[in-house]
Amino acid sequence: MDSTNLAEFSSQNLKACTNDFNESNLIGLTQFGRFFRGNLGGQYVIVKIWDSEKLECLSSKYNDEYLIIREEIKFWTNPKLKGYPKLVTLIGYSWERDIKGVVYDLNPLDTLGSVIMKDSLNWLQRIKVIHELAKILKFIHDQEKQNMVLNISASHILLDEDCRPKLFDLLLLSELKMPKEQLTMSTSHIDPYFSLRGGEWDKSSEVFSFGIVLLELVTKRISDIVKTENDTLNLDNLIHIWAKKEYKPNCSFVHKNLQEDWHYCAEDGVTITLLAMQCIEFFPSNRPTMKDVLQSLDNLSVLQHLHDARPTKREKNFVLS
């Protein structure tokens, strides 16, 4: 297999750098496995390990045991990605009997889900996170070969040391049809139209998931299904259900603490709330494209201010990046 000059790691390499895949290094789940923090001789990395059974199922379907990792390498080494800082850098892989995975050059600050409710992430930083995420998704959706992210949720978006979002786990097989029974992503971020009607997961489904992350960022709420004392499900904790109950024209869902941020303006709050509501429309045809989303975000006054003026000393101290 052509490794395109990537490092080939042994299973022992990956076990050693993750402390034998210790739970303390587990960051989260991917569509086909798990991902861990690792340390390769002082270099901090992310190690993504594929689940053997899921991988075997896909490999047998396409009669090619190397297909998944070859597609992974082909995408991350695409010349179009060079110099594109919003995606991670692939540095190596392992393809042994007991361990199959890839290694990314990334030392994440945390997941977005871990900081989304904290005051440490201010209004400007939240807007920059969602703006960068929109640019990443537009870039992916614009590629000639269709790739899907699938796991778009706050817990599945990594933040680097400058609080910039990074995506690393894409479904890289355009021929692969993903029925809803095989999706492992959180119910709180899955497209309800797809969930109820079935069919194929597509770009509009990812716009819905993006809309959930956007709502979580501006409201400082986490979308989740909570069981009550009598073991029934409280669907009101799903943020898109809550939002549709609460939404009124020209209203803002921006958390009151964020409204006190000196970068905030009321007009931006109304605009971004409306954008989120458009993204979570039930019918896919009513949702914007990621190109539309990015155009709307670009028009926010907080971003216009960043583009039109140099940061003042106060701004430099206020923003982590």
Overview of the structural elements:
With 321 residues, the chain is an alpha+beta fold. The chain has 13 helices and 11 strands. The strands form 3 sheets. The protein has a 6-stranded mixed sheet with strand order 1-5-6-4-3-2, with helices on both faces. Strand 5 and strand 6 form a beta hairpin. Helix 5 packs antiparallel against helix 7, helix 5 runs antiparallel to helix 11 and helix 7 runs antiparallel to helix 10. It is globular and about 55 Å long. It starts with 6 loop residues before the first strand and ends with a helix. The C terminus is likely disordered.
List the strand order in the largest sheet: 1-5-6-4-3-2
Order of helices and strands: EHEEEHHEEEHHEEHHEEHHHHHH
The SS-based structural class is alpha+beta
CA(first)-CA(last) distance: 40 Å
> What radius of gyration results from the CA coordinates?
20 Å
